[in-house]
Design brief:
1 helix; 12-stranded antiparallel barrel; mainly beta; two-stranded antiparallel ribbon
Length: about 250
């Protein structure tokens, strides 16, 4: 099941695995706003190393509208499938402020995670939650260092306060390839209610634009959760290879 997003619309829209395509954007001059729409299809939907689709494919859409001041709003949608649940879609609403300080790019924002159509069973817990997210990146060619921190006052499944920290790097390689690595750790107040103990997750992925603005990302993703620790013996936390095809408009 799903942990929360990180302190800042993720210090990125961490909704697409590790790397996004170079942004193709539409500028609305009268509103001084740039809009980016990114559809994607993947062999799975992983959030902090845990499958949100029971190891099945996902179709996703990300919308980002940023004013020249740095203020932005956005949304992310995907299909989901959780064991023993009628939740079938996720819709995240985000807002925040992006700016630069001493050469570092900063993103401070928040995310509201919702699951339209989900009906909590009698005595069950709510899936919806909010998260504050802070994200930073700094480029020292050919390496971009990235960091994310997120906090939720009442995490997924009403599991109490939760903190997520993540760090990593993107390395520009020859022939248009980008190598990305991430390591993160999730702390959760009420582990029994959440369904898993605090855990680490990591990933290594390679991405490249292949044709017509389409970017293919292929990577390896894993957590330190055993099967017995993973939501009552599921395979949602297993190591896996995953591929995602995306294009920004």
């Amino acid at each position: 099941m799903k942990p929360s997003l990180v302190l800042a619309s993720a210090l990125s829209l961490s909704i697409l695995p590790l790397a996004l395509p170079a942004a193709a954007q539409t500028t609305i001059d009268s509103l001084a706003t740039t809009v980016t729409v990114t559809p994607a299809v993947g062999t799975d939907y992983l959030f902090r190393g845990i499958s949100q689709t029971r190891n099945r494919p996902a179709i996703q859409l990300t919308l980002d509208a940023q004013h020249e001041s740095g203020l932005y709003i956005g949304a992310f949608g995907s299909n989901v499938t959780f064991p023993g649940s009628n939740a079938r879609q996720e819709l995240d609403l985000l807002a925040g402020y992006r700016f630069e300080v001493a050469g570092a790019s900063i993103d401070l924002g928040g995310v509201y995670y919702t699951y339209p159509g989900y009906d909590a069973p009698t005595g069950g817990y709510d899936y919806n939650y909010v998260e504050a997210i802070a994200k930073a990146s700094y480029t020292l060619d050919p390496v971009k260092l990235v960091a994310t921190a997120a906090w939720s006052p009442n995490f997924y499944y009403e599991s109490g306060s939760a903190i997520y920290l993540e760090g990593g790097a993107d390395v520009t390689l020859p022939f248009g390839f980008t190598l990305a690595g991430r390591y993160g750790y999730q702390w959760i107040d009420r582990n029994t209610r959440y369904g898993a103990p605090d855990y680490a997750n990591w990933s290594v992925a390679v991405s490249r634009e292949i044709v017509g603005g389409f970017t293919l990302t292929v990577g390896y993703y894993d957590t330190d959760l055993s099967k017995s620790e993973c939501f009552a013996g599921t395979k949602l936390c297993d190591s896996r290879a995953m591929a995602t095809l995306s294009r920004a408009f």
